[in-house]
Each structure stands twice: as C-alpha cells, then as structure tokens.
Amino acid sequence: MARIFITGGTGYLGRVLTRQASLAGHSVMASYHTQPPPADLANWLPLDVRDPLAVEELLERLRPEVVIHTAYRQSGPDLLPVTAIGAGNVARAAAAIGARLIHLSTDVVFDGEREGAYTEDDPPSPISAYGAAKAQAEALVAAAHPGAVLVRTSLIYGFAPIDRISQFVLDVATGRSPERLFTDEIRCPIYVEDLAAALLELTTLPCSGPLHVAGAEALSRYAFGILIARAWNVDPSGIQGALSADSPVRRPRNCALDSSRAQQLLRTRLRGASEVLRDLGRVV
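^ thats the sequence. predicted structure below, dont judge the formating
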C-alpha cells in the first residue's frame, strides 16, 4: 500500500478520493485550505498551494510516494495563483522527493471548435480564463515533473452528496433558476466514483503526459440535464434549451474527449452517464 497525498481533499472529487484510498488500505494524507476537513481516516493538513515554500516543506516532511493534485479555483482573483502557479508549486515539490504525480486538468483546455472527440495529441487552445489557467498549469507541471500524468476530465457528477452541476440542473428544472441549458455544448460527464477509482489505478501504471479520463458518452448540457433531472425523480419539462453560439460570452462547444487510451490502460470502466444511471437503478 502507498503513502498518498491528495491536495484539495475537501473538494468534491477530493473527498471521494480520500475515502476510496483509505478503504483500499493506503496511508492517506490530504490538504485543505478554505473548507474545514471531516473527521475520517485521512490525515488532514492545512496547505496554501500558492505558497511554494509551504508546499515544499510539507511534502519534504511527509514524503508521500504519490501526489494527486486536485486543488483549483475556477474563477476570481485566485484563478491563476491557485490553479496555474499552485499546480507548478506542487509539481516541483513532488519531483524533488521523487513522488509519482497525478495532476487534474480539464476538457476546456480546448476551444471546442473541432469535429469529433479530442485526443491527447491535440494541442491545448483555450478560449476561457479557466481553460487558459488549466493549460498554463499543464505546461508548468510538465516542465517541473516530466513523469506526471496530466489527467483531462469533464463534468464530474455524483449522488452522495449531490454535486454542484446536478444541483444547478435541478434548480433549473424546478424553476428556482431561470437559466437554460445549452443544446450545442458537448461534454463527456464522468461519475465521481469512476474518476476516483481511475486516478488511484493510475498511481501504479507506467504512463505520463496528457491522458483523457472522461465518461464514454458525449452529451449536450441539455441532454445531460434531462438525464440528471430524471435520475433525481424531477420532471425535466421545466428545462429549456438554448444555444451556446448565441451566448454573449464565447464558450467552448464540442469538448468531447476520446478516452480510449485510458480505457486500454485501466480496469476501471469509464462509463457513460446513461450506463451509470442504469447501474444505480436511477430513472433514465
């Protein structure tokens, strides 16, 4: 069993990772910053990834064999300091102690203008501030830790507890939010339990560089919203469609990821949303 350090352990993915890793018998250490940690099997430690010295000192003291970096900010003044620069800080510290590094990235490092799914050979071409920060993070991590795996994933959803994307869908379906869901914005949603299991598998597999780990089913935001509403026994008729192309803010539209390379490596099946909901006995 490995000594695993997880940054952003109190985040949605981080919580599932710490649970799965602990139950698998690993020695789990996890960091938190703004969210207080739960009382569970992980060894929780405060960490601000913006502080390179603090990151270096903590990893030198803990000396984990594996680092899984999930900490990020999606917007606001800490977008670049946390999401990009912080990732570089973690990568340098992990490299210094010879730790395996799994870095979480995103499908929106692409501009969404191509036909078909993106592969690992497609170069990043972000058009959003978040996508640009994640693309910068990938570059910093690759430079500091050439053996790192840069895991690009998509919309992460789950049920215990509900994720923020699914909650947003339910708010739209029930009229609590006036927003509409895009019919021309394509993603590959992934179940959080599948993603966490895949990341833990990658800690021992001989691979590095970009790797796409997303759900097998490409869905529009609208189609995914319909599935999620039904899964929570909410009438989806309140969900209205809209075109991302008509949005005043330019957004990446087709961010479908080809995850065949990862699926060949992994025992964990990267299930599409419809399959996950059927397996869980949810209405689809």
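The two ends are 38 Å apart (CA to CA).
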